[in-house]
Design a protein that fits this description.
The complex is a heterotrimer of chains A (204), B (341) and C (176).
Chain A: H1 2-7, H2 10-22, E1 47-49, H3 64-68, E2 74-81, E3 84-96, H4 105-109, E4 115-117, E5 132-133, H5 135-144, H6 146-155, H7 195-203
Antiparallel strand pairs in A: 1-4, 2-3, 3-5
Chain B: H1 2-39, H2 55-65, H3 76-92, E1 104-105, E2 108-109, H4 119-140, H5 144-175, H6 180-185, E3 190-191, E4 195-196, H7 199-202, H8 204-217, H9 229-232, H10 242-267, H11 283-304, H12 310-340
Antiparallel strand pairs in B: 1-2, 3-4
Helix pairs in contact in B: 1-2, 1-10, 1-11, 2-10, 3-4, 3-10, 4-5, 5-8, 5-12, 8-10, 8-12, 10-11
Chain C: H1 2-22, H2 26-46, H3 50-75, H4 88-108, H5 120-126, H6 128-137, H7 141-162, H8 164-175
Classes of the chains: A alpha+beta (204), B mainly alpha (341), C mainly alpha (176).
Chain lengths: 204, 341, 176
């Protein structure tokens, strides 16, 4: 039996048959530049800076994103808003997207949800310098893909659109969310090691 | 005057055949990409022209305008002539392929460019010469990959040419001629009115051996050891670019078409219609149909089988294919002897 | 027309033959030998011997010379620095002697005219392949068989030489 199989190459013919039948199955690829995959809201594409509905910049220049960035691609130059000594904003904001690893830590770190990631993934340019995003470019992206950015924040559980009331702020730029009193004002349980415990770990 | 007409008819036929062959080469690349895509649930080239139909032209133009690089340390003369040595044998073989029934043009015989009485051996002679282009190209590139590819190719082509030669001797015994025109003419007609008198029905083993040897001879998957991408980058034409690369490419596909044409002529009746009532379709259409069927088979096995190892290739060629074809030759000779007496 | 062809083919033959032994780069030697083979095949065609011409290319150019090239590349022969070897006076001497013999033979008229049954007309009638086959398998069957026997012996010898270690291993195994 084995010899007959070898002589008539039945296994090879079986393979040929399978491949031939495969020809009549529908294709499973996309004609990419013309047809694109739908992209989920949580997709981490190019960075953008958002504005509030009244047009003011969300960013307060706190540099937390700079601290959170694992690839050190963010540079924030913070400054006071002229004439308002207590209010700060980012005078300059640089983001080297060619070094960005698209981890999204900066958006997590942002206390005012000024940073959001869009669904843009076609970032190729002819000049590498164009990949050095400055404040203007980031706000432009945020304006262009405002819906994407908002959807991103919602998808990542950072903003459901109601967290930061803008009414009655007066001169202040933002207000922290009201403390959740449903659980009797208790803080949620500490997850992981405390700072002291971490230090003990290091000493060990 | 006679000679003048002869030259004109010969040039006309050469032009027609050459253009057909080159167009077939161009669209063979397209067909290969398309068929492979369908086998892999893809669509293949779709951008240039409707359904990507102009893709071969775009590819040709691209290769034509590419920078021509000669690597440092390469032997410039041999590096330049190797693609030509490779291409000419692939195209020259079509001179003896009878593409349609004989007709008369300006008082000259048509249907085949040159009806040599040793037409078959002529094709084989030039197929052997094609190996020089590969070896010399590999050697002149001054690159390890190219040299290894060239050496592999030399060993492979020599080994499988033997098996190929043995597999067609049976056909020669049956038709008693080396001229491809006579071999085709011997295959017209039918047995019992419904089986075409093709050699494939008398020589099935030889046909199988011929097809396997032809795949190996043209360096196609699963026998593409000379250019095995995963081991040798691209084998003997690793260092080639632009037009020279295009020449190698043309030669490879030209060889494929040539061996397919030859298989059609030797085993599948050439330009003969399979059944008498189908003979209203012209002969060249039948030849094209048979050749394309074989070319499809080439693509099909490329889409199916993985590459064999080099020792497996050699073992198969020398220890399986050649003994099988020799036994087939013996049986055929006995059969022909008994039949004739 | 035929004479012009002959002169061209013969000239290239001689030039290529000289180049084969004088060029310094081994690959060039092989290439000029290849050209020589092609032009010899051309001479055969002029003599109405298409079969011989094609076989010349298949056997010499297609098989033997490829193996030469193969060996050249495997061994990576270095190019000779000296243009002529020390033996060249002897070579010239032998060449002169053979040449003189050839010229003398041509002048004496031994090969002056073709004779026998295989005239150009006869070959044209039955085809040169058939003519060679008939001669080879009837009149010259014994030399043909002897030649094939010699080749068989050579083949077996080659196998024995290359597989020597395997046979020794086998003998060792039997001894154990």
């Amino acid at each position: 039996m084995g010899l007959i199989k070898t002589v008539f190459m039945t296994e090879l013919l079986m393979g040929l048959k399978i491949v031939f039948m495969q020809m009549f199955k529908p294709y499973c690829t996309l004609q990419y530049p013309h047809v694109k995959h739908p992209i989920p809201d949580g997709y981490r594409g190019l960075m953008s800076l958002l504005r509030y509905e009244d047009g003011s910049e969300r960013c307060v220049g706190c540099s937390l994103c700079e601290a959170a960035c694992p690839s050190n691609c963010i540079k924030v130059v913070s400054d006071e808003v002229p004439g308002q000594p207590l209010v700060r904003y980012a005078r300059e904001y640089y983001l080297d997207i060619s070094r960005c690893v698209f981890c999204g830590f900066c958006t997590e770190a942002c206390p005012v949800d000024a940073l959001a990631m869009t669904k843009v993934y076609e970032a190729s340019v002819y000049d590498r310098r164009e990949l050095m995003f400055d404040k203007r470019k980031l706000y432009a992206l945020g304006e262009q893909f405002l819906e994407d950015g908002k959807a991103y924040l919602v998808a990542h559980g950072m903003d459901d659109g109601t967290l930061y009331p803008r009414e009655g702020l007066g001169d202040n730029r933002y207000a922290f969310p009201p403390v959740d009193t449903a659980h009797g004002g208790e803080q949620p349980e500490q997850i992981g090691l405390t700072r002291e415990a971490l230090e003990v770990e290091e000493i060990r | 005057m006679e000679i003048g007409w002869m030259v004109i008819t010969a040039l006309l036929q050469i032009t027609v055949v050459l253009i057909t062959v080159l167009l077939t080469v161009a669209y063979m690349t397209y067909a290969e990409r398309k068929v492979l895509s369908f086998m892999q649930d893809r669509l293949g080239p779709m951008e240039v022209g409707p359904y990507g139909l102009l893709q071969p032209i775009a590819d040709g133009l691209k290769l034509f305008f590419k920078e021509d690089i000669i690597p440092a340390g390469a032997n410039k003369i041999i590096f330049s002539i190797a693609p030509i040595i490779c291409l000419i044998p692939a195209l020259i073989g079509f001179a003896v392929i009878p593409y349609t029934e004989g007709f008369t043009l300006f008082g000259m015989q048509g249907g085949v460019i040159a009806d040599l009485n040793v037409g078959l051996l002529y094709i084989f002679a030039f197929a052997g010469v094609g190996a020089y282009g590969v070896i010399l190209g590999g050697w002149a590139s001054n690159s390890k990959y190219a040299l290894l590819g060239g050496l592999r190719s030399a060993a492979q082509i020599i080994s499988y040419e033997l098996a190929m030669g043995f597999s067609i001797v049976g056909v020669l015994l049956l038709s008693g001629s080396l001229s491809l025109v006579s071999i085709t003419q011997a295959q017209s007609g039918t047995w019992f009115g419904f089986i075409p008198q093709w050699n494939v029905f008398l020589q099935p083993v030889a046909f199988g051996a011929y097809v396997i040897a032809a795949v190996a001879e043209t360096n196609r998957l699963p026998f593409d050891m000379p250019e095995a991408e995963s081991e040798l980058v691209a084998g003997f034409f690793t260092e080639y670019s632009g037009m020279r690369f295009a020449f190698f490419f043309l030669a490879e596909y030209g060889n494929m078409i040539l061996v397919s044409c030859l298989a059609s002529v030797l085993f599948l009746g050439g330009y003969n219609a399979p059944l008498p009532f189908l003979s209203f379709i012209p002969g060249f259409a039948w030849l094209a149909l048979k050749t394309w069927a074989l070319l499809f088979f080439f693509i099909w096995i490329r889409g199916t089988f993985p590459r064999v190892r080099f020792d497996q290739l050699m073992k198969f060629g020398w220890k399986v294919l050649i003994p099988v074809t020799l036994v087939n030759l013996l049986v055929t000779a006995l059969g022909v002897y008994i039949y004739n007496n | 027309m035929m004479e012009a062809m002959f002169i061209y083919l013969a000239t290239v033959c001689v030039v290529c033959a000289v180049l084969t032994v004088t060029l310094r780069q081994p690959v060039y030697n092989v290439l000029s030998l290849l050209t020589l083979f092609f032009h010899v095949a051309g001479l055969y065609v002029l003599l109405n011997a298409e079969f011989l011409a094609v076989v010349q290319i298949i056997v010499y150019a297609g098989a033997i010379l490829v193996l030469y090239l193969f060996v050249l590349m495997l061994l990576n022969v270095r190019t000779q620095s000296r243009h002529l070897h020390r033996q060249w006076p002897f070579a010239v001497l032998i060449l002169g002697a053979v040449g003189a013999m050839l010229v003398g033979a041509l002048h004496s008229g031994v090969w002056g005219s073709a004779s026998g049954e295989s005239t150009a007309a006869a070959i044209h009638e039955i085809g040169d392949t058939q003519a060679i086959g008939l001669r080879l398998y009837t009149d010259y069957l014994l030399p043909f068989e002897v030649a094939s026997l010699v080749l068989l012996v050579a083949m077996i010898g080659a196998i024995v030489l290359t597989k020597k270690s395997l046979i020794d291993d086998h003998i060792d195994q039997i001894k154990e």
